[in-house]
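Appendix B, Record 12. Input sequence as logged:
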Amino acid sequence: MAKNRNLFSFLSGGAVASLGGLIGLGGAEFRLPILVGFFSFGTITAVIINKVISLCVVLFSLIFRSNTIGFDLILPELGVIINILIGSLFGAYLGANYALKIKQEFLNKIILILLILLAFSMIFGHSSLEASKPLFENSIILFISGVIAGVLIGVIAAVLGVAGGEFIIPTLILLFGIEPKLAGSISLCISLPTMIMAFTRYFKSEQFKEILKEKSFVLYMLFGSILGSFIGSLLLEYWNDPKLVDTFLIS
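Logged structural output:
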């Protein structure tokens, strides 16, 4: 039974990470329902496991994607990354702190609402996204908008244990006018420190001790996720048409 559980952990981690590595997401919005529904983890335990796996997926996806989207293309957008991070780091700490204090029943309701929002974001928010110019010409208003968006992204990412790319990518495209494919890689640069902030808060909690009891399960999912993020990065080379991304996200 344990072997089958570890096998399913590996396979599900790989499948989700392939999708995440391709789009530029951590894939955690797909992984969380699997952890709770299929593997029967408690909500907060599933969120923390989700955060651990998402960290791995984002890190390796960023490395693997660099073959297609080089860091030389990302560095010119460092100002945008810092802009959103100012808000997302603060939001991540708030979100993780809140998730640890509320009752599981209420957390379940919040997560359900957030997952629905994520679904609508992916279905409708990405359907006609094209790079243009920044939404605001005034740099101060643009900066403040980026910080506010970052706070909201950080809170959602921490509560769900996700990377937050579902909201970061539309923010980068609509607010800052960044090309969709590049936005996927920039999103990973924002997601990584945001998740580390939330993970730091979870690491100090009593609930983290439950994760240590599931080391074998987590390791199998990590290995599957690393392989999956590599596969996703390979598929990215054939992902040149933004309309193809839109079609995939809507399907």
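The first helix runs from residue 2 to 23.
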